[in-house]
Design a protein that fits this description.
By secondary structure, this protein is α+β, with helices and mostly antiparallel strands. Helix content is 47%, strand content 14%. The chain has 30 helices and 19 strands. The strands form 6 sheets. Strands 1-2-5-4-3 form a 5-stranded mixed sheet. Strands 17-18-16-19 form a 4-stranded antiparallel sheet, covered by helices on one side. A 3-stranded antiparallel sheet has the order 9-8-10. Strand 8 and strand 9 (467-469) form a beta hairpin. 33% of the residues are buried.
């Protein structure tokens, strides 16, 4: 049997990782002891007996021995990290003794000689299972597999057994984000990418709203530090004026609540920096035009009777006696809680000076669930001895079903899981009145797959509120749906663009994969036979040339299209004889940040420029945009994305090692034009089109590729596709457009196509 505490081989292990190992100083020991004493103070609320205290202390001393002398990149003792994670677990998430123990041990198996079997022997099977779920995967992966995605799949699969593992992992990620300043730039992009793509939505889905907001703010702080500091400063600058308004708004509400002998707390909650910034980005408006910077929250102590729900509505009635409500902004999440367990009554009312103000009404129980999420949800469920499934239970069952039948590709698995983290939901009904929860934006086809896979596979239409509609029809809250099926119908690739739910995408993908495999086998045969007809020997060069000529990125896609008849090989001889396949002309010049420092380096060893770069079609960055490089694992070229690109976050969450370490910058680009598209909306009037074209042609001498405007009910909407030399030129043009009378909204859109 291994000794309980060991001091062997740890230094060499961590030197490989680049983490400095040395003996702890007296100051280090003081810091460790302070952190440990603080943790023990927090543990008082969960430890019920001496066995609980002993369990935590044994875990602490084993972790201290295992990580002895090891330091983080910041230089602080490594042990402070697992202690901090355990502190978050107990204080900010509200978990119990086993979770604290697992948090203290979460890096022991990954970073030392201890094994999962050791954990089982010392702490029992449950702790061993939790630590195993928290341990990163090791070993060799297939070349076409994302190690990050495989790791996430393993962690997420623990949802099928113990949700606490995910909660501890979120705590681990939160502490790593709080200390991210010590990581290099490429690691910061990788970590923030996977955080914003997966961990923040997952925290929200598990009801951890404060953690979700902090993760988002920290991502913004490191990815867009200038914008973060600017908005933080603006929020701080307006704080005094905002508080004066909150006090004025709350004064009559306080008077009526006091008069009714209600015990309560009332506060103004300010939007997070990230949520302000995303709203500015989404609506392309300045900070000064965001009017919902805060919400008023009322948390009250309930009386034995009447019901919680009735008491919430009584307070709502008191408030709307003072301020007029906006009827379409009433949100009753008490009668039908969100899937993450969130309950509250939200209303938007007209406050002083003509400002709309959101008011949130909650009981103390609802407040704890809103702040602590899953842990508080189960505590109250256990307290009431309820055996009935609620919205959270239903969502968790769906997730477990999806996780227990994952797709072959870890990347697909991760993308599909991400879809289950939708944050806005609607309730719809079957013909018999059964309620179904779907994401906002779900279609009739999503509903069909939610009923049963066979119903989805054979769907051809739907009756929505007794009216026949296509399966692409987006559903609204309260719709009643009946699916129309036909035996001859089958899933199509276009359906993947229609559906929004994990289940629907997985089922459609599974069907298409089975069909695609048949097409691939047929396509290989057809392609090889066609090459034989022209006496051409099959080789990697020939295949790559043909794939590029027919616009295919992957060989399976190429063969599948041949087998399905999408690609005809009638002109294959011409393709093979051409000296080179067509290339897009590159009118930009991009360089890595230190290019101009490498004049003495041989040409073949310098960082590659121009031909090695490809502009990402998903976001179409312009010269002057803040950009990040990602090395494509297939072509080995650097694909340049806008730093704000959602697709970049997805790639960073799955292929973080491919993020280019050095900054990519525009440098002395030629005076050549780049295609960009502007979306406009405003009040229609005579001559507005003339004003727009006058600014484009006369004021800026810019060439237009295409313009599409349409007017309805006095409102016009349109898109303008044009050629500009830089992002600065585009934004100058947009600023000029905003001065046109009647033009309400001017936005740059990343997709340059006009429908």
């Amino acid at each position: 049997m291994r000794a309980l505490y060991r001091h062997t081989r740890y230094s060499s292990r961590f030197s490989v990782l680049g983490v400095k190992a040395m003996s702890y100083t007296a100051e280090d020991e003081r810091l460790i002891n302070e952190a440990y004493e603080k943790l023990l103070a927090s543990c008082k609320k969960v430890c019920k007996n001496d066995d609980d205290w002993s369990f935590i202390k044994r875990a602490y001393f084993l972790a201290k021995e295992a990580h002895s002398g090891v330091r983080r990149r910041s230089g602080e003792p490594y042990l402070l990290h697992p202690i901090a994670v355990a502190q978050i677990v107990v204080d900010e998430i509200g978990l119990g003794v086993k979770s604290i123990v697992a948090a203290l041990l979460h890096d022991v198996v990954e970073d030392t000689d201890y094994t999962v079997e050791d954990m089982d022997h010392i702490f029992g099977a449950k702790i061993a299972s939790m630590v195993d779920g928290l341990t990163k995967m090791s070993g060799v992966f297939n070349a076409d597999t994302s190690e990050q995605a495989e790791y996430f799949r393993k962690v997420l699969l623990t949802l099928s057994d113990d949700v606490r593992v995910i909660l501890i992992k979120i705590a681990d990620r939160l502490h790593n984000m709080r200390t991210l300043q010590y990581m290099p730039l490429n690691k910061q992009i990788k970590i923030t990418g996977e955080t914003i793509y997966l961990f923040a939505p997952l925290a929200y889905r598990l009801g951890l709203y404060p953690i979700k907001s902090e993760l988002e703010d920290l991502c913004m702080k490191y990815r867009f530090p200038e914008e973060y500091e600017r908005i933080s400063g603006l929020l701080a600058k307006s704080a005094e004026k905002r508080q004066e308004y909150i006090d004025r708004f709350c004064k009559p509400i306080i008077e009526v609540l006091d008069r009714n002998n209600i015990k309560y707390e009332i506060s103004g909650r300010v939007k997070s920096v990230y949520s302000v910034w995303t709203k500015m980005q989404r609506k392309q408006i300045p900070f000064e035009e965001i009017y919902d910077l805060f919400a008023i929250r009322i948390v009250f102590q309930t009386l034995p009777f009447p019901s919680e729900k009735t008491q919430c509505w009584q307070i709502y009635s008191n408030i709307t006696d003072i301020y007029a409500p906006k009827q379409d902004r009433l949100r009753d999440w008490i009668s039908m809680p969100k899937a993450n367990g969130y309950e509250a009554l939200h209303s938007t009312v007209m406050g002083p000076d003509g400002h709309w103000v959101e008011v949130q009404i909650r009981t103390q129980r609802m407040e704890e669930i809103a702040e602590r999420g899953f842990a508080a949800h189960w505590k109250y469920k256990k307290a009431t001895l309820s055996q009935n499934d609620d919205a959270f239970d239903t969502w968790l069952k769906k997730i477990r079903d999806a996780l227990n039948s994952p797709t072959e590709s870890a990347v697909e698995f991760l993308d599909n899981f991400k879809l289950s983290l939708y944050t806005s939901e609607i309730t719809v009904f079957t013909p018999k009145g059964e309620q179904r929860q779907l994401p906002n934006g779900a279609t009739a086809l999503d509903f069909a797959y939610d009923i049963h896979t066979k119903v989805g596979d054979h769907a051809i239409g739907a009756k929505i509120n007794h009216k026949i509609e296509p399966i692409t029809k987006a559903l609204k809250w309260g719709d009643q749906i009946e699916i129309i099926t036909a035996d001859s119908a089958k899933p199509k690739a276009e359906w993947l663009e229609i559906v929004t739910t994990t289940k629907a995408k997985q089922k459609i993908t599974a069907f298409l994969k089975r069909e695609q495999q048949n097409n691939i086998e047929n396509g290989i045969t057809l392609f090889e036979n066609k090459l034989a007809e022209h006496n051409v020997t099959m080789s990697g060069r020939v295949l790559r040339k043909a794939m590029q000529a027919y616009g295919c990125k992957y060989k399976d896609e190429f063969y599948s299209h041949i087998g399905a008849g999408i690609i005809s090989l009638d002109n294959i001889e011409k393709v093979l004889k051409s000296s080179s396949t067509s290339k897009l002309l590159k009118f930009w010049h991009l360089r890595q940040e230190d290019d101009d420092l490498d004049d003495d380096i041989p040409e073949n060893e310098k960082p590659s420029t121009d031909d090695s770069f490809t502009i990402a079609s998903c976001c179409n960055p312009l010269p002057g945009d803040n950009v990040v490089g990602f090395r494509d694992p297939i072509t080995n070229k650097i694909v340049v994305h806008k730093a704000t690109c959602d697709e970049l976050n997805r790639l960073a969450s799955q292929y973080g090692k491919n993020i280019i370490k050095d900054k990519i910058k525009w440098s002395q680009h030629k005076a050549t034009a780049y295609l960009s598209t502007i979306e406009m909306r405003g009040i229609d009037r005579m001559g507005i089109l003339s004003d727009i074209t006058h600014i484009v042609s006369d004021d800026f001498s810019i060439n237009m590729r295409e313009i599409h405007l349409r007017s309805h009910d006095g409102i016009f909407e349109g898109k303008l596709s044009l050629y500009v030399q830089s992002a600065d030129a585009l934004y100058a043009l947009m600023d000029k457009f905003r001065q046109i009378k009647g033009l309400e909204s001017v936005k740059r859109i990343e997709n340059n196509e006009i429908e």
